[in-house]
Fold 4Fe-4S dicluster domain-containing protein.
Amino acid sequence: SRIAVIGDSTFFHSGITGLLNVVYNQSNVITIIADNRTTGMTGHQDHPGTGRTLMGKETVAIDLEQLCRACGITEVVRVDPYLIKETRNTIRRLLNIKKPAVVISQRSCALISARPGAPKKVDAEICSGCRSCLALGCPALSFEQEKALIISTACIGCGMCVEICPKGAIL
């Protein structure tokens, strides 16, 4: 199995043809579409999935799930990437089916959405220094003096680090 990751805007712009080729060639590929309802890499413009034109006029919002099914994908699953265990289990399940699949990982863009919670903190007394939290790749997570550290000004309060910490050291 192979895994491909693409943003929603890029998928609409140029990824659909790749998905069609996955279906046509019966490739064992899981395509993960990071659906944040914006074009983050160029300034947060709308795209065909947002329901607004670039001029701000309301229009039809193309449904990613329906589009993927219309391309011939029978296994299309929506996940909330903040629910790490559920997302991992979904991907593991799809890796075992040995046919094309799509995971729509849907969550609003962290750069433009309201903070879901207060910035998190690390209890240095509990932190074992295992570095599990660093696997998230979160820009707010750092490591100093053999302990995890959260940069409060960069933390959006999503809580993913709380979920992944095996010691319960992130509050």
Summary: The chain has two domains: 2-106, 114-171. The chain is about 25% helix and 20% strand. The first helix runs from residue 8 to 24. The domain at 114-171 is CATH 3.30.70.20 (Alpha-Beta Plaits).
